[in-house]
Structures are given as C-alpha cells and as structure tokens.
Here is the input.
Amino acid sequence: MANRADVSMPPTVKRVAGALRWIGWISFWTQVALGVVSAVVLLFAGSNLSAPTQNPLNPAAPAAANPGTGAGLFFAVLGLISLFIAAYWAFRYTRLARQLKTSSSQARPRRGDAVQVLRFGLLISLVGLGLTILGMQAIAGSLVLKSFEQGFAIFSGNPLRFITPLDLFVVQAAANTLMAHFVGLVATLWLTRTVNRQ
Here is the structure.
C-alpha cells in the first residue's frame, strides 16, 4: 500500500515531503536539546542569581540582589519560551510531510498551505532571535559594568560586584538559545527554498 502511494506521488511532492521530514526532525531535536540545556541552566542560575547575597565584610548591611538579573533574564526566558514554540513548529513540519505522502491528491495540503506554515515558522524564529538578542545585550551590559567595578569590589568586599560562574552560565544559556533559533531559522529557510523550487 505504501509503495502504491509512493508510485502515485509526483516527484516534486516526494522531494518536498522528504525534505520536510528530515529537516523537520533535525531542527526539532536540535532545538529541543539546546532548549532543555538552556532551560536547566537558566532555572538554576535564575534561582541563585535572584537570591539576595549578604556582604561578608559588612553583615549589618542589607542583602542585595544581583544586578545582572532583571531585564536580561526576562528576555532570555522569553527567547527560551519562543524556542520551545519553534521546536513544536519544527515537529509540525514532520506532520506536514506525512500529510503530503498520502495517496489521495485531494487530501494533500496545497503548496500555499505549506508555504504559510513555513512563513509562520520563520516569524517564530525571528521573534525568538530578537528576544534572545535583547536578553544577551542586557546580560552582557551588566557583565561589562561588573568588570569595571571589580577594582571597587576588592576594596568594598561586595561579592555582587565580582563576575561569577553563574553570570557566565546565563550567557551560555542565552548563547545556546540563540544557536537553537539560528538552526530553526536556517532549517525553515532551506525548507522554504525546497517548497518554492519548481
């Protein structure tokens, strides 16, 4: 039965369905893997960075939160949420490939439907890239500020002014999210080219 469907399927549809299936799965698993790593790192770092830290040289001083939290983490988390939406959308490409492989030509999605799905995937990846870049800019800005203040931190003994490994974990998580959005964007652009090719 599957062989009969393959025989009745036009070569263009077969090529597009194969590309949607393979590129969709590669994009999906890459985004999920990088997204899970980023989520774990952001969850761990966010819970530790947002916890107030006591100045060890002046215990009477009120505890203060790390200045690297806030906008940077907020946009990084928004970028991560959009990454999981993009991963779902990449999974949808594989379902679209399955619909294209049906033996009934009336049941197959039209080319315009496939292009519409891919355009929405591009939009998701672009929005995610933008949000994550905003987060990275805010995080990098706070790290630059901390690097300038490290000389003062030695004299004041304020641990919040030192760049910590947790700060760098947040940067790594945002970089992983950026990479995953980039993979999704490239995959969707490749699929758009494949669908639009005659």
In short: The two ends are 28 Å apart (CA to CA). The chain has one domain: 8-51+66-196. Residues 54-65 have pLDDT under 50 and may be disordered.
